Automatic annotation (TrEMBL):
Lineage of the species this protein comes from: Bacteria, Pseudomonadati, Bacteroidota, Cytophagia, Cytophagales
Species per Swiss-Prot/TrEMBL record: Pontibacter ruber
SMART domains referenced in this protein's UniProt entry, alphabetically: Lactamase_B (SM00849)
Coiled-coil intervals: none
UniProt entry keywords in alphabetical sequence: Hydrolase
Name recorded for this polypeptide: UPF0173 metal-dependent hydrolase ACFSKP_16045
Gene3D superfamilies recorded: Ribonuclease Z/Hydroxyacylglutathione hydrolase-like
Amino acid sequence: MEITYYGQSCFLFQIGEHRILFDPFISPNELASAIEVDSIRADYVLLSHGHQDHVHDAERIAKNSDATLISSFEIVGWYAEKGIKKTHPMNIGGKVTLPFGTVKMVNAIHSNSLPDGTYAGNAAGFVVETEDTTFYFAGDTALTYDMKLIPEQFDVDFALLPIGDNFTMDIHDAMIAADFVQVDRVIGMHYDTFPYIKIDHEEVKEVAQMAGKELILLEIGQTINL
């Protein structure tokens, strides 16, 4: 599985021949200025919630790629009105089978609206189960006991967790979340983009090490294989 980081909470997963993009916020992000948004192609675009810093480039990339947009019923309906032809609405607790595996929408504790203020349903995370790997993309969330339900249904290999604090979990809560989900490998997200969520990289790595976790902080544009 190949994973490319585009900043904030935006990741492109190459799973076999399928490309799955999460929460595309790239073009307004000064830290991602070297990324050519129009070069990004995705088969599926998954949106955890409707805030600008997670959806800004969703319409652009989905139309460029003729991708299927997957999100809450409310968000999918909003994008359908913008001309996105391929959509799949979901809600918390639902699961869909796709060519690369299954996607289950799970709870996230966070506010949620679209860029124009439209109500966007519940914020969410996703558990993606493929033939070889299962991972948890938490979206923007506080620490919640609901995370303990995930390992009762899935054997999760790694989790993508927000660590920037202020709007989401900090590194300390993220390490507790990793315990709840029963993973030792965490990819950090939702940090450094804005002054409110800037982190001390050495400090968060030390916290993770003390918790016995592997914390991966990717450079924007970096690709790794897991």
